[in-house]
Prior knowledge:
- The complex is a heterodimer of chains A (263) and B (248).
- Chain A has 263 residues and is mostly helical.
- In chain A, 82% of the residues lie in helices and 0% in strands.
- Chain A is built from nine helices and no strands.
- The longest helix of chain A has 46 residues, at 41-86.
- Chain B is of the alpha/beta class and 248 residues long.
- Chain B is 38% helix and 23% strand.
- Chain B contains eight helices and nine strands.
- Chain B has helices at residues 45-53, 88-98, 103-116, 132-144, 162-179, 190-196, 224-227, 230-247; strands at 4-14, 20-30, 34-38, 60-64, 73-76, 150-154, 182-187, 199-203, 210-215.
- Chain B has a six-stranded mixed beta sheet, sandwiched between helices. In chain B, strands 2-1-4 form a three-stranded antiparallel beta sheet, with helices on one face.
- In chain B, a hairpin with a 6-residue loop joins β8 (199-203) and β9 (210-215).
- Chain A binds chain B through residues 148, 150-151, 153-160, 164, 168-169, 172, 175, 253-255, 259, and chain B through 50, 53-55, 70-71, 73, 75, 77, 79, 81, 83-86, 94-95, 97-99, 126-128, 146.
Amino acid sequence: MNGASRLWRFLAPTLVGLAFLVAWQAAVWFFEVPPYVLPGPFLIGATLLHDGPSLLGALLVTLRITFAALAVAIVVGGALSILFAQSRLLEISLFPYAVILQVTPVVAIAPLIIIWVNDVFAALLVCATIVAFFPIVANTTLGLNSADRNLVELFRLYGASRWQVLQLLRLPSALPLFLAGVRISGGLALIGAVVAEFVAGTGGAETGLASRIIEAGYRLEIPRMFAALFLLSLTGIAIFVVLSWLSRLLLRNWHESALESAD
Amino acid sequence: MAETLVTATALAKSFRNGVTALAAIDLAVASGEFIGVLGPSGCGKSTLLRIIAGLVEPSAGHLERPADLVGRIGFVFQDPTLMPWATVSDNIYLPLRLQGVTRNAATPRIAEMLDSLGLGEFAGIYPRQLSGGMRMRVSIARALVTEPALLLLDEPFAALDEITRFKLNEDLRALWRRHRCTVIFVTHSVFESVFLSNRIVVMTKRPGRIVADLTIDLPETRDNALRLSDRYADCCRTVSRRLAEAMT
C-alpha cells in the first residue's frame, strides 16, 4: 500500500465520523432536543472529561473481566480444539455441546450462574468466557483439521510421532484461523462481560461500566450514559486493533492475510 | 542385473467408492534404476506410487520391499507441498528433524542440498517468495536430504512451463547419476519419461495395467542436445506408439 492510500484509509473514516458528529450536534441544537432524550456530542465530551476518573475505575473492572475471560477462552478453547484434533470421536461427542453453549443467550443463563457462583468476579468471568470461547474452538478445530493432506502423508512417510504432527504441522496450519478466532473472541469477551454485569445488577464492591450505565439510566443522566457507552466502544475498537496487529505480526512472513502488497 | 529392490505381484486397488484404480500390476524394480511410469490421466499411476511408498494398502496382491526401506523413501508430490510458515532451509530440514537429527548435525547436509539444487541464496526465505520451479527444487531437495534408497516422484513438473521443466529434467537426471538411488517417476509426458528414464512402463487407462515395459537405450549423460537427436526422437516415437496402443 502506498503512502497516499494509507493516509486515506485513516482519513476517510475519520471524515465520515466527524461529519456524523457535526450533523448530530446541529440536529440537537436545531430541534432543541433536551439532553435527557439525546445529548449532543459536546455535552457528552464535557461529561466524559468531568466524570472520566470515576468511569475509568469502572472501565478497569470491566477490562479485568474481559481479559481474564479472553485468556481462559484461549486456554480452554485451544486445549479443547487440540483434543478434538486428536480424536474424531471426542470431537463428534463434544462439539454439539459447545454449539449449545454458544447458541444459548448468555442473558438467559447468567442469572443461574450468578446464583451458583458466589464470587461476583468469578460469576461474571464464567459468563464472559462462555460467550467468548466458541469462535476460538470452532476456528482452531477447523484450522487443525485443514493441514495439507500431502504434508500429513509426508510426515507419515518419515514416521513422525503424533506430537510431531501436532507441533510441526497442525499447530502452524491452524495459527491463522486461531488468530482470527481470538480477534472475534476479544470483542465477544467484552460484550459478555458487560451483559453479565447488566444481569448481575449493581451489587458488589467493585462494579464495571455496565453498572455505571444502569445507574445513569435510573437517574436520567443520559450524557453520562453516553460517555460510558463511548468508553465501551473505544475499548472494543482498541481490543480489535491490538489483536489484529498481533495477528499480522505473527503471520507477516508467510500468510496471505498479512502480506504487504508488492506495489 | 542389479538386485531387486521392490517387487509388486498382482497388485490391485479398489477404493470404497467402487473405483478400481489398479488391476493386477506386476513390476520388479531393480536397485539403482530410473523407471518412468507413463500412462493417461487417472490410470492409477499415483495410486501405484503411493502403494509402493506404503501410504496406501493394496486391496489385493503383494508388495515385497526390504524391511529397512521404511524411512528411506523420498516422495515428491505434484505440488511442491512445502510448509509456508517455514523457510527454505527449514523445509529441507524437516525429514531429518522428524528422524531425530539435530539442527547442528543436519546443517552440512542441508547446505549440500541447497547447493546441488541451486538454492544457496534462498536458504532463509519463505516458499511464497519463490517461483514454481524453485519451489519444486526445494521439494526435491527435501526428498533427497535423507539420502533415500528409493525416490518416488508423482508428476512433479506437470504444472511448470516447458523451459523450467526441461532444466529440471536435466538437473534431476544429473542428481540421480550422482546419488544413484532408485527412482520411480510418474508422468503423462512421453518426452519427459524418455529423457529421464532408463526403463519405461506404460499403463492403460483405469483400471491400470502395465502393457509395455521398454528399455530406453540412450546415453547415460543426457543434456539438451539429446532432445534434438534422432535417437531421442526414435525412442519417443516408439514409446508414443505403445502409449497409443494402451489407450485403445
